[in-house]
Design brief:
Largest interface: A-B, 52 and 49 residues
Largest sheet of chain B: 9 strands, mixed
Oligomer: heterodimer
Order of helices and strands of chain B: EHEHEHEHHHEEEHHEHEHHHHEEH
Number of domains of chain B: 2
Order of helices and strands of chain A: EEEEEEEEEE
Shape of chain A: globular
Number of helices of chain B: 14
Distance between the termini of chain B: 29 Å
Radius of gyration of chain A: 16 Å
CATH superfamily of the largest domain in chain B: Thiolase/Chalcone synthase
CATH topology of the largest domain in chain B: Peroxisomal Thiolase, Chain A, domain 1
Helix content of chain A: under 10%
Radius of gyration of chain B: 20 Å
Strand content of chain B: 15-25%
CATH class of the largest domain in chain B: Alpha Beta
Number of strands of chain B: 11
Number of strands of chain A: 10
Chain lengths: 133, 404
């Protein structure tokens, strides 16, 4: 066996503990959830956090279809905000034609994974996205 | 000097917005400063404080400008607050005057952006040869386009779509019609970067940037500067009747940031901080949304203008679509919004924007609006948002002397 050939694109994506899912830092004092490395809570300034698993299904709360982006970014793509059981998550919508006839506000979506590419060491970065449920 | 809650705009100016190939940022800023001083009938030696902003600058624009227009040794504040930089500069001077430290001060914002693509695609860092975690998300490469979008047209498109989802009754055409209004308004503004009317069809069929924002629904990158001279009421009363007649009262000067709410670090929440600023501004000025003769709000994208009708409480909560469709925000409506043409056509030289919108309101309150004058204007509101976020709101009132 070689070393790990896949790594999560971001630290808050978990690939090797059952089905792929996201883990948030939840403030133990007020329940605010964050995906980034924390110094303290933006809601209450508390400094104690616990990891919590974020629901893998949710509702499409907002989206845009980006047609004009920086060089190297494949367009068009659907950028979205998904309400995963009360926790808002930013991500792309995939496995769905990128047009307003197919992407509908309020539609149900679920977490999926996509490949970002393989580096020179042969490691594949795996990202998360959402697809119609 | 004594503490004064009575603060006025004595002089104000904006340069032509657009492409100034033969002028650098210092030329443009100096032009705005000299024009504002002339407009107020005062000089650099009368200024007790200065605040300046240039978001793309080197962080010392105030001193660079002083070296061209007058080094008098006064304190200078170089301020930076994204698109709210101009409003922040003005508010910095207002605070110094209110505190009684000085009786007059100068605020200026300037930017050279013509040809810059930063409000559209921008750039994304190239992937490295080996995946290496960095940043607060521990990402192994740049996230733009891979975890949603970081482009401004895309972020603000989602803000508009979020409103559409929450309240309904708003679609692509609604947003495009807002842009139609602003482009129509711009035909009367000779200082706007773009002054052509555009039909709904032209707008909807133009280049799509980030659905539902097409190119003409996005703010126009351009060059420009704006400057204002602020004076205490006490000092103003010692000045000429003409200066007192043309002075415009700053009835409210508010700056807010966004209080934490669920989702605000996932998609910027430009609503709560604007609503908070509006509440404070109306209270400080002792006026309500129904008293406003005109509003210049931060339409960095057509999708943003719609949500701010609601945030500024110009309409019932959730009713921005119906409010717009009633014609209320056209220049002949009950609450004219962005009669300057707004950022979509007047242009958005970032640090200048938060003073240029106040210049526009002052033109009307002084009855100097020319062909685009809103007749009988007495109270106006100017609003900007800098993503990150900062919200600046100023409420301005016509001088009682001018009304007499």
């Amino acid at each position: 066996m070689s070393v790990a050939t896949q790594i999560p694109f971001v630290e808050y994506l978990v690939l090797d503990d059952g089905a792929p899912h996201l883990v948030a830092n939840e403030c133990t004092a007020c329940g605010a959830r964050f995906f980034d490395r924390r110094n303290a809570c933006a809601g209450c300034s508390g400094t104690d956090f616990r990891p919590v698993i974020v629901a893998t299904e949710g509702e499409l709360r907002s989206y845009t279809i980006v047609a004009f982006a920086a060089p190297g970014v494949d367009v068009p793509y659907v950028a979205a905000i998904v309400d995963c059981g009360g926790t808002s998550v930013r991500g792309n919508i995939v496995n769905c034609p990128p047009d307003p006839e197919h992407v509908k506000l309020g539609m149900r979506v679920r977490l999926t994974t996509t490949s970002v590419g393989t580096d020179q060491a042969g490691v594949e970065a795996v990202n998360y996205a959402f697809e119609p449920a | 000097m004594s503490k004064s809650d009575d603060v006025w705009i004595l002089g104000i100016s904006m340069t032509k917005f657009g492409k100034h190939l033969d002028k650098d940022t210092v030329d443009l800023g100096a032009e705005a400063i000299l024009a504002a001083l002339r407009d107020g009938g005062v000089g650099m030696k009368d200024m007790g404080v200065m605040a300046a902003g240039c978001l793309m600058g080197r962080g010392s624009i105030a001193q660079e400008l002083q070296k061209q227009v007058g080094q008098t040794g006064i304190p200078a504040y170089n301020v930076s607050n994204a698109c709210a930089t101009g409003a922040t500069a003005l508010r910095t001077v207002v605070m110094a005057v209110k505190a009684g430290e000085v009786d007059m001060g100068l605020a200026v914002g300037v930017e050279k952006l013509a040809g810059a693509g930063l409000l559209a695609g921008g750039t994304r860092a190239a992937d490295s040869d080996e995946w290496t975690r960095s940043g607060r998300l521990g990402a192994v490469a740049a996230i733009d386009g891979r975890i949603g979008t970081e482009t401004m047209p895309g972020v603000f498109a989602q803000i508009g779509q979020e409103y559409a989802h929450k309240y309904g009754g708003v679609d692509f055409e609604t947003f495009a019609r807002i842009s139609e209004k602003n482009h129509s308004h711009s035909t009367l503004n000779p200082l706007a970067a773009y002054t052509k009317a555009m039909s709904l069809e032209q707008i909807m069929n133009d280049l799509m940037i980030a659905y539902p924002n097409t190119r003409p629904m996005c703010s126009a990158n351009c060059d420009g500067a704006a400057a204002a001279v602020v004076v205490s009421g006490e000092k103003l009363r010692t000045m000429s009747l003409e200066q007192q007649r043309r002075a415009v009262k700053i009835s409210a000067s508010i700056l807010t940031t966004d209080p934490w709410e669920e989702a605000c670090q996932v998609l910027p929440n430009i609503n709560t901080l604007t609503r908070n600023a509006a509440k404070q501004a109306y209270e400080q000025a002792g006026v309500g949304p129904q008293d406003l003769s005109l509003v210049e709000l931060h339409d960095c994208f057509a999708t943003a203008e719609l949500v701010h009708y609601d945030n500024l409480m110009l309409c019932e909560e959730g009713g921005a679509g119906d409010f717009f469709r009633s014609g209320a925000t056209w220049r002949d409506g009950s609450t004219p919004v962005n009669v300057s043409g707004g950022l979509q056509s007047k242009g958005h030289p970032i640090a200048a924007t938060g003073i240029a919108n106040i210049w526009e309101v002052c033109q009307h309150l002084r009855d100097e609006g020319g062909p685009r004058q809103i007749e009988g204007a007495t109270v106006g509101l100017a609003h900007v948002i800098g993503l990150g976020s900062a919200c600046g709101i100023h409420i301005l009132e016509k001088s009682a002397l001018a009304a007499a």
